[in-house]
Write a structure and sequence with these properties.
Chain B: Its main location: membrane. Chain B: Belongs to the type I cytokine receptor family. Type 1 subfamily. The complex is a heterodimer of chains A (about 210) and B (about 500). Chain A is an all-alpha fold and about 210 residues long. Chain A contains 6 helices and no strands. Chain B has about 500 residues and is α+β, with helices and mostly antiparallel strands. Classes of the chains: A mainly alpha (about 210), B alpha+beta (about 500).
């Protein structure tokens, strides 16, 4: 069950006196929640990918597979620790949000397809539904974190296009339909790992004293 | 032509594997193909984002390897590796594709694993601590380390497992005196598990406190009955004294009064001691002596001694359990060694119909059985039984074990001498040969000692009984000798089987 409903974080934002310590604590808590959320999402995507491989591709070769083109390849993402640490906070945050936005619709359609396939058992079907819901919830959570960060002055308020994800979606609308289900799972597993990593790096850059 | 010769000589490198220890660098190895023994050079080229580059480091990861440092490592990126083998005969290449370095992430096992036994109350537990592998960066949040811990009893086969993110764990399911094994391993993100760390052993010390309590408990519980016993002994000390230290009968001399001694009048003392000076006539004394049986070790004496044969000793032998209603006539028994030796073998075959007729255990039923039958001892023609009517009657022979004045000896053994045949008993009176068995002699009765429970002799086949009537009375074998009389039930009555004497 998704216990980390971000609406319940209202209590954390009841620091009225403007004490910075209190606010940063609540920001750290927010980060923890979204990180937990992303970890769970990545876990589910990993499970689904393994199950899919088990059911549909019993004989797989680790090395020498056909190259995959994920629809998110166009999004430039830092591919290493140093890169992720060097990149600007705002940019990193933007990457996270872009990824989350890009996956909302494909996962929803994936779930619709899987529900109709009988090979995929009910358990996996529930997972795909959960996955598609989570990506949506996580995006909302990260947006809350961004608002908090902007409020605290941690990042610039100049990230205007984050508030309008539809602009991001438009460019990606067609590409994801070209992916088959297996590639989709593979790509999402990779991207959810990225999201989790970036969130953690971001937290440790902004609020390092709260457990890194 | 030379081209396909080449194909046979140089085999493409087949195996290819990579590993990343910390999700920041990675290495790849290839298996050198069969190269015909010629020095072969291997080169690796990789393409990433349409740019072909050569391996930056052929050395750090060992032979036939390529090491990619942080600068050259891109996680979540795709690599296409081409390994080219070149030697004097030509070159060959093979392509390998890595879609994501994340798939090859396998860390080193955790380090500094320590297991400490914490013996605090209420129960001991294992404090297990460890550290992340040295290369892995845990501070920037770049990796998420998960640990798996397993503990098992040294001689058990089942591991108890725990997965978590912390670097410590308290294991409570331990018992004193047992040895435990602990291992830890770790995983980066969704990569592969590392190898297990070295096994750490820990032994839980035995719980001496519990043992202390146990012994205190035992002591107290054994003390209470002890004290009670002492108290009872104290209360009944007189009775105990009587039991443990029976009063030694003081010297009682007829006519002598202890007080007399105390008073100290010498005349009275002397008189008392000496009694009246009238001694009984000697003849009376010898008469008494006459009634005593003679003891001897040799049968020769028994057979040849005129004195013995003259004496016509009367021997009262009453089988144990014999109902008093039966008349026991005096029987003269003779010793016939020869017959006995013959029947030695037959004895072995005898079954035991009388296994339950041991005289010691003769139950009342037997008694009653006898009663019901109202049979007397079959007086055999040639036998003469001693008339015991003059003796006081007893109600239960099986119980009589002691002698009062003129009572009859009770023999507790049942042993039937082989082939004892009352009919052919000679008229001679035979003196019991084994006087060592004679416990006490009193007037006309000989008391033989109780022997072991009937064995062998009493357990005879039924057919043996029929032999009895035809055979001469036989002395039981030496091995049997310790027994007394056997009671044998033939058909409906007891037959006096005769005495068991030792033949020495």
């Amino acid at each position: 069950a998704l216990c980390s409903r971000l609406s319940s974080i209202r209590a954390a934002s009841s620091c009225t006196n403007g004490q910075t310590g209190c606010h940063f604590l609540s920001l750290a808590n927010l980060f923890d929640r979204v990180i937990q959320h992303s970890a769970r999402m990545h876990g589910i995507s990993n499970d689904l990918h393994s199950e899919f491989e088990l059911y549909f591709l019993p004989s797989k070769n680790q090395i020498g597979r056909v190259s995959r083109n994920c629809h998110t390849s166009t999004i430039l993402t830092p591919n290493g620790k140093e890169n992720a640490q060097r990149i600007a906070r705002e940019e990193l945050t933007e990457v996270i949000l872009k990824l989350l936005v890009a996956w909302r619709e494909p996962l929803w359609h994936f779930h619709q397809n899987m529900a109709q396939h009988r090979e995929f058992n009910n358990f996996s079907s529930n997972k795909s539904l959960e996955m598609s819901e989570m990506v949506h919830e996580l995006r909302r959570g990260v947006q809350k974190v961004v608002e908090k960060m902007q409020m605290l002055g941690v990042i610039n308020s100049s990230l205007g296009n984050l508030g309008s994800p539809e602009a991001l979606l438009a460019s990606d609308r067609a590409e994801w339909r070209l992916m088959n289900d297996y590639d989709l799972l593979y790509c999402f597993r990779r991207d959810s790992n990225k999201i989790q990593n970036y969130l953690k790096i971001l937290k440790c850059r902004i609020v390092p004293e709260h457990g890194c | 032509g030379p081209e396909w010769e080449l194909a046979f000589i140089i085999c493409f490198p087949r195996k290819f594997d990579c590993r990343s220890r910390e999700k920041e660098t990675f290495s790849c190895w290839w298996e050198p193909g069969s190269d015909g023994g010629l020095p072969t050079e291997y080169r690796l080229f990789y393409t990433q984002e349409r740019e072909v580059r050569e391996c930056p480091d052929y050395v750090s990861a060992g032979a036939n390897s390529c090491f990619f440092d942080k600068k050259h490592t891109s996680i979540w990126a795709e690599y296409t590796m081409t390994v080219v083998a070149t030697n004097a005969l030509g070159n060959a290449s093979e392509e390998f594709r890595i879609t994501d370095v994340m798939e090859y992430v396998k860390p080193d096992p955790p380090v500094n694993v320590t297991v400490v036994v914490n013996s605090s109350a209420p129960s001991p537990f294992l404090e297990i601590r460890w550290k992340s592998p040295p290369d892995v960066d845990v501070r920037t949040g770049w990796v998420t380390l998960k640990y798996e811990l397993r503990v098992k009893q040294n001689d058990s086969k089942e591991w108890k497992v725990n997965i978590g993110s912390e670097t410590f764990f308290n294991f409570y399911n331990v018992y004193p005196g047992l040895l435990y094994m602990v291992q830890v391993r770790c995983k980066l993100d969704h990569g592969k598990w590392s190898e297990w760390s070295n096994t750490i052993f820990a032994e839980i010390p035995k719980n001496h406190q519990l043992e202390k309590y146990f012994w205190i408990f035992v002591f107290v519980f054994s003390l209470v009955p002890f004290l009670m016993a002492m108290y009872i002994v104290l209360l009944k000390r007189n009775a105990v004294k009587q039991c443990l230290l029976p009063p030694v009968p003081g010297p009682k001399i007829k006519g002598l009064n202890a007080h007399l001694l105390k008073s100290g009048r010498s005349e009275d003392v002397v008189n008392a001691l000496m009694g009246n000076q009238n001694f009984p006539p000697v003849a009376a004394w010898t008469e008494q002596v006459e009634d005593f049986l003679l003891v001897s070790d040799s049968d020769e004496w028994l057979l040849t001694d005129s004195f013995a044969s003259e004496k016509n000793k009367d021997i009262f032998i009453i089988p144990a359990g014999l109902h008093l209603g039966l008349e026991i006539q005096r029987r003269d028994l003779s010793v016939d060694l020869n017959t006995w030796e013959k029947t030695d073998d037959s004895k072995e075959e005898a079954k035991s119909n009388f296994s339950n007729m041991e005289p010691i255990n003769l139950p009342v039923e037997k008694h009653e059985f006898l009663n019901g039958e109202e049979k007397s001892i079959q007086p055999l023609a040639s036998t003469s039984y001693v008339d015991i009517q003059q003796h006081p009657t007893l109600t239960d022979y099986s119980r009589v074990k002691e002698v009062n004045d003129n009572t009859i000896l009770i023999l507790n053994e049942e042993e039937i001498p082989h082939g004892l045949d009352a009919e052919e008993v000679k008229s001679e009176v035979s003196v019991p040969d084994d006087y060592s068995r004679v416990k006490e002699v009193n007037s006309d009765v000989v008391f033989l000692e109780k022997g072991d429970s009937a064995d062998g002799c009493c357990k005879k086949k039924e057919d043996h009984y029929t032999d009895w009537t035809n055979q001469k009375p036989i002395m039981p074998l030496e091995s049997e000798l310790s027994k007394g009389f056997c009671l044998k039930m033939i058909a409906s009555g007891y037959v006096d089987s005769g005495p068991a004497f030792s033949v020495k």
